[in-house]
Design goal:
Elements lengths: L3 H33 L9 H12 L1 H17 L7 H28 L4 H31 L3 H37 L8
């Protein structure tokens, strides 16, 4: 195997294999964690896992995990499937991966070196994304079922409070240790630790 073009193709294939492996493993973790938390309405690890995937492996991989996780979970969701809501939740879930990837690329300039301050920053990011996620999915819910928007938003407030509060805590507690762990396992990744 002295031919450099063959070696380069082998490296690309290995790279693609690693990317696919990350997508499959993280998607499985998202789906499995959602089923594990099924009894606790609007509390899940999926959002933070998708964000961490984007942060560590880039926006494309993070978005793929977000889309696939909700697409698969949504199709075999014990609460049933409503296509417009499935599309909205899968799309909005990918935003966690997108923002994670963008932050991962710019993180050294934006995330504070102090771990407590960095954890607060991640919690704020989690708050913002989750708030937007809840507003968009409530709007889609209202339109899909012909409910007045103000009623859908008001009725969704208790669920949104639980979702936002749990994500703020999960982002605060989970992102930094996960990124440090990933960096220890794969030191060649350029992640903000």
């Amino acid at each position: 195997m002295d031919n450099p073009s063959i070696q380069a193709v082998g490296l690309v294939a290995l790279n693609q294999t690693k990317k696919i492996s990350v997508i499959v493993v993280m998607t499985a973790a998202c789906i499995g964690s959602n089923y594990a938390m099924l009894g606790v309405i609007n509390v899940s690890f999926m959002d933070v896992l998708v964000f961490i995937t984007g942060l560590a492996f880039g926006s494309r991989i993070g978005m793929a995990v977000g889309l696939l996780s909700w697409a698969i979970y949504g199709l075999i969701n014990p609460y049933g499937v409503v296509l417009p809501i499935l599309i909205a939740t899968a799309t909005m879930e990918s935003v966690y991966g997108l923002v994670g990837g963008l932050l991962g690329r710019q993180g050294r300039h934006m995330i504070h070196p102090n771990p407590i301050v960095a954890s607060v920053q991640y919690a704020i990011v989690g708050f913002i994304i989750t708030f937007v996620y809840d507003v968009v999915t409530n709007i889609v819910f209202a339109v899909t079922f012909g409910i007045q928007l103000n009623i859908a938003i008001i009725e969704g407030i208790p669920f949104a409070i639980v979702h936002v509060f749990s994500n703020v805590n999960l982002f605060f507690v989970g992102v930094l240790p996960a990124i440090k762990g990933i960096h220890r396992l794969i030191p060649e990744l350029n992640v903000n630790v």
